[in-house]
Amino acid sequence: MKMLSLLHFDVLPLAKLEVGHHFYWHLGGLKLHGQVFLTSWVVIGLLLVASLLATRNPQRVPQGLQNLMEYVFEFIRDIAKAQLGEKEYRAWLPFVGTLFLFIFVSNWSGALLPWRVIEIPGGELAAPTGDINTTVALALLTSLAYFYAGFKKRGLGYFAKYVEPTPILLPIAILEDFTKPLSLSFRLFGNILADELVVAVLVLLVPLFIPLPVMMLGLFTSAIQALVFATLAAAYIHEALEGHGEEEAH
User: Where are the membrane-spanning stretches (predicted)?
Assistant: First the structure.
């Protein structure tokens, strides 16, 4: 199994729970999960290669990989447009699309490849989204994105949402901003980790046919998790752009 802890400093550990042996890179006093970077680079490399091949010789009538990439683009555009609206979705399409593609390919890599069976010196491999560090980082980026969106559009007026319709709701509004990244990160992490563990155990115990149905189910749930994360990220950004008062006006 992987470590179930956040990045931590030697002087001030954020969590001490560790399961198994892991491959670390040391940067000053910071321990980095080397296996997460390795698998993340694999995912990023796959996305870059697919993008380059799909756009290498574009045709007016798309075929093959170009057709697939255009379908993926239209699918992501529909997600962003449905959540953000016609006026706002174009500015946030790259962010929402990047989230969806990275999570989708990361999840599928964990469902198709038994990463945990592949051992490296001092550790083991797993899908990037099967590590709490990755999912927390993606959730925090989403939080920064919707804070930025709201502050950029409405300035200091963005913070009025914390006291609308009454200042009594201020603690609840602040708590909501903490629960959003927590729910995003732990939902994704828990589902992907559970799927990887089930597949890894079945591959070790019954390596031929039994794991296949579970892997197919894992592909489906992995795609759903990517869709849910990207949809919620776009919805949070839309909420920050619109604001409480404007939503009531509509």
Answer: 36-55, 91-112, 132-151, 188-210, 216-237
Smallest Cα–Cα separation from 219: which of 105, 111, 101? 111
- CA angle, residues 55, 106, 194, in degrees to nearest 5: 160
**Which pLDDT belongs to residue 6?**
40
The dihedral over CA atoms of 208, 213, 219, 222, expressed in degrees to the nearest 10, equals -110
Question: Are 235 and 87 a contacting pair, CB within 8 Å?
Answer: no
pTM: 0.80
Residue with tokens 């949402």: 161
**CB-CB contact of 188 with 222 (8 Å):** no
DSSP state of 60: S
**Pairing verdict, β 30-33 and 24-27:** antiparallel
pLDDT of res. 13: 45
Ranges of the chain with pLDDT below 50 = 1-17, 19-20, 244-250
With both helix axes pointing from N to C terminus, report the angle between 211-249 and 64-84 in degrees, rounded to the nearest 10.
40
